[in-house]
């Protein structure tokens, strides 16, 4: 028995001995209470134990299910990783093949464009000719038309044409822009002659009063590439250079020294043009003509390419200044009677237009030679 029960019985027996017969009922009640309390405790412990066992059983089942699920997920993740690695390898192989195919396609596209462009090497395109003027024999008509447009000095006889036709498009409505005429000349040299002559006479070619333009027959891709150079070519012309577009679209610049420089893209040509322009200090022809001798390109630019062009200009100015300083070069009197008037006033030779090695102003000449009236000044305007 538990120690507490023994103590209780001891206490009860002691109490019964002390208290007598009245305490027996109390002791009996306490004993019954103890027994019932112990029974309740056992039942409570049993219910708690059963509850925990059931709860643990449920948790164990769920844990087993979770472990099974995790194991399945692990297998699936392993499978997905394996598949992902396989797909990654396949993608790498496909990317390599795609890069090879893209490179091959680019080369084939470039070759196709080159072949198409070369197939049009002998073609010219005439814009502005009215519709239906060629009649039933377009080759003969357009061949004779070229002689009429360019003249017998350029073409001694009608050139031989392989074919001639309008651009393959729907016939335009009356009053609208006519379709271009495409001709294929039998000889490339004749075609090149026609294009060069048409370029010289651009804006002057007319047929029955209608402006006519003659161009090379480029493909649409080539035209788009060449159109990107329009702005930069205008800047190069302003710089006094001689730009030219090589087939299909490569810019070539002829420098003053005769050297040629080529640019594969408009951006590189624009950058070069900017550097070229910034390397020169601004001046004017009047300032150069009135400057003292000697002159050096290094006074105006640090760019050797610009120096070549400027050197040519300075050489001409130096020659002019030295020529003007020679006192034996006299005005050619018979050209204009006003020169005789100037000679009577004391201005006899071109060298006298210089005062202290500088080109004199009109006021200085008026004071030095007693010039009067606007007629004398008109000579120098």
UniProtKB/TrEMBL annotation:
InterPro entries: Transposase_22
Coiled coil: 63-97
Domain of life per record: Eukaryota
Keywords associated with the record: Coiled coil
Entries under PANTHER family matching the protein: L1 TRANSPOSABLE ELEMENT-RELATED (PTHR11505)
Name this protein carries in UniProt: LINE-1 type transposase domain-containing 1
Organism of provenance: Dissostichus mawsoni
């Amino acid at each position: 028995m538990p120690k507490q029960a023994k103590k209780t019985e001891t206490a009860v027996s002691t109490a019964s001995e002390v208290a007598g017969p009245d305490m027996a009922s109390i002791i009996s009640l306490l004993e019954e209470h103890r027994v019932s309390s112990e029974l309740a405790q056992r039942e409570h412990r049993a219910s708690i134990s059963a509850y925990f066992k059931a709860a643990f059983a449920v948790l164990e089942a769920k844990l087993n299910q979770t472990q099974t699920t995790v194991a399945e997920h692990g297998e699936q993740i392993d499978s997905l990783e394996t598949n992902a690695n396989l797909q990654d390898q396949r993608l790498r192989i496909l990317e390599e093949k795609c890069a090879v195919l893209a490179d091959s396609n680019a080369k084939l596209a470039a070759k196709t464009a080159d072949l198409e462009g070369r197939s049009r090497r002998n073609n010219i395109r005439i814009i502005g000719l009215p519709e239906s003027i060629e009649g039933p024999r377009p080759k003969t008509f357009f061949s004779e038309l070229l002689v009429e447009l360019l003249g017998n000095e350029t073409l001694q006889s009608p050139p031989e044409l392989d074919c001639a036709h309008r651009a393959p498009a729907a016939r335009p409505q009356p009053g609208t822009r006519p379709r271009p005429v495409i001709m294929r000349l039998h000889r490339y040299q004749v075609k090149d002659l026609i294009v060069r002559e048409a370029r010289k006479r651009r804006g002057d070619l007319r047929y029955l009063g209608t402006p006519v333009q003659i161009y090379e027959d480029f493909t649409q891709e080539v035209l788009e590439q060449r159109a990107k150079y329009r702005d930069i070519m205008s800047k190069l012309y302003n710089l006094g250079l001689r730009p030219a577009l090589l087939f299909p679209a490569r810019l070539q610049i002829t420098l003053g020294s005769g050297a040629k420089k080529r640019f594969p893209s408009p951006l590189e040509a624009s950058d070069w043009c900017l550097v070229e322009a910034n390397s020169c200090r601004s001046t004017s022809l009047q300032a150069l003509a009135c400057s003292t001798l000697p002159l050096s390109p290094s006074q105006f630019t640090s760019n050797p390419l610009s120096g070549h062009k400027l050197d040519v200009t300075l050489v001409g100015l130096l020659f002019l200044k030295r020529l003007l300083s020679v006192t034996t070069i006299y005005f050619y009197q018979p050209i204009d009677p006003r020169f005789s008037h100037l000679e009577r006033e004391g201005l006899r030779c071109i060298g006298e237009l210089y005062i202290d090695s500088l080109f004199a102003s009109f006021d200085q000449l008026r004071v030095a030679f007693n010039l009067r009236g606007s007629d004398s000044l008109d000579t120098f305007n």
